Structure prediction request, 768 residues.
Amino acid sequence: MHSDTLLLLVYLFLFLLMILIPLLPVIRAVREKSDFDPLPVNMTYSKDPRAIAKYFGQYFVDAFTENTFKIGDRLEDEKLGKLEVLGDTFSKIKYQDMVYIIGEVEIPRALKFEREVIARDALVVGDHCSVRAIKAEKKLTLGKECCIVRWIDAEGSISVGQNTHVNIASSASLIHLSRGVEFNRLFGHPVLTSHSFSFQKNRQHMIDEHLDDAAIDENLLYIQDEKYVIEKKDKLFRSIVIQGDLLLEEEVKVFGSIKINGDVVLQDNCFIDGNIIAEGNITIGEHCFITGNLFSRRGITIGSYTQIGTSENTKSVVAQKEISLCEHVAIFNYILTDSGGKVV
Amino acid sequence: MEVVIYVLKVYLLVFIAIVLLYMLRHFIFTFNRLFGRQKLYYQDILDDEVPFVTVLVPMHNEALVANQIMDRLMESDYPLDRLEIIPINDHSEDETKEIIDTYALKYAHVKPLHRLGDEHRGKANSLNDAMPLAKGEVIVVFDADYQPPNGIIRELAVGFKDPEVGAVMGRVLVENCGTNMLTMMLELERSGGYQVDQQARYNLNLIPQYGGTVGAYRKNLLIDMGGFDPNVLAEDTELTYKMYLNGWQVAYANRAECYEEMPENWMARAKQIRRWARGHNQVMFRYLVPLLSSKYLNFRKKVDGLLLIFIYMMPTMLFFGILSSLILFLSGNLEIFAGIVFLLFIVSLGAFGNFAPFFQIGVANFIDGRIKSLRLIPLFAFNFVFYMLYVSLGFWDALIDIFRKSEPLWSKTERHAKKGVKDA
Prediction:
């Protein structure tokens, strides 16, 4: 064979080889068919703010259902591990196993529970305690400067002492937070940063008092301004979309939702019968009443004697950044932040 | 002849500039998804005051999949007193009618619409006909081959708490991706389109697209905009542009995931993308000028809107680009810019420009935790040639549609429905 022809054939062979190289993993992938399953979707998922506690409760019942607990028992399950049943006596400083507490008990200060605590009756956790998680069948009270690593849930009310860190808290009843409490997710009826709820507001009363003035306009008010101000005591009967920042001066009333692509500040005594959705920060003054949800892609600050939502419907306060609650704030019923919240 | 050469050179340069823009876009989206601030959708809002929702399921000869989607919708956790389901039987010749009538007998909130007369067939016509019957303030649409999870209607509807949101789009996952190489590649492509492209557009306040299924829109808004135009095959893309041109936004819910069934053979896929390309280009011809002159869109949104609307025209432009360079080469005029710099530019464009969409697909599947199947990525080079052909045909169809008065015929994607998805 002529040397040029041979060279051409070699080139051709190398060319085909070079094309085949990236196809080798393809051939292997097609043959193996590994990782070809559909991405998992939880087809039965329904949003439930108490889901973690419910799942845990179900696991617990399934694991220890045959047992009638007595103080002093030590039980073991393959999945959940060891369980110690306690009364009102705590002999150790640190509990490494799961604990089931019987009777109305007050846990002494500075104890550490590395696993879950399940309380059949009302439970008081002393100051400076650290607990992984608590599931209480009745009322739950946390002392000062405690640390909850994962979550707490109670069928009764929850009261959280000063400077305590609760990661996730949910209750079928009221959650009371003292000053300095840190949180990520709360669900209560309502969540209250006050010992009494004397400032409860009535939506129907506000509607009866003001809604005769004008009918609600279904059309959106679209404002392109970089900064827009709704002046003191003004009333608006439609939803608004603001491209920039928004300031609501004192005693403004809006019967509709507000969307702000910047920051929004509500001065004292404002009333919003709708949702506030903001790309920026939401700052709410004192004695305000928002019947809908607060949603911010930044942070949220809520002033004293302000109420979010009503006892009739569940509403949410959701922020991607920090949430700061002053004392004497009521929220029906859900608070969520990605970056931590605090009572200040 | 000189004029022709000049025009070809200008065309080639403009085309290279457009390709560069697309390359940049792919990289910006991918890096945003990897390292940028992610925009939170509204799914974390817990609110028991929910809007009345009407779910529309257009069906034409969907007996193979009708039971599957109806069963899934009956499992929905949305409050029944705020929900109605309208399966639309669009001139089916199989057992679709009987199947949906069975559900209507059993469930009060299922109210079928049978289109059996001499009405025009097609998705847009079906959706328009259902509007007077729909009681919901929010309309949710699923194609018949979809499998909506229990909580998805709530997740889509909650987006309308934002008064600026006119439509919401969920994420589509391929259920039959394990069937063969084609379905797996479509899954990888889908992942790139949703996990990176749609989410990045949402993050960057650009133009996330309403996709016509696993999506929702405000009913009054659609009625005010005159409903869907049956002459446009991509009613979803048209709605997207109508929304933005009227000051509304489309929200993207990446966690509102729903399985769909993809075509399992290449010819069915060819027909599907040809239809998409035709519809998309119809929208391009109609909305290009309004897009550029809109008072509601800022510069960034206009650029993104342009790149989105042009995407199905690119293969045709590429064809003419190759043709131009061939003519210029054969006539000895290809030296547009002389020197090593231009050569390096072309080589870089070849390396990184062509790499950009594959990079996007790779990153999307990495985020999804799908690593091993990324070995299929080299095949997308061949896939590209296949798409180029059928997308180009779609472009010419759309061009002919400008002069044609009659409604285009809707060609349905073939169904398979071998199995349902087990709860994950």
Q: What stands out?
A: Chain B has 13 helices and seven strands.
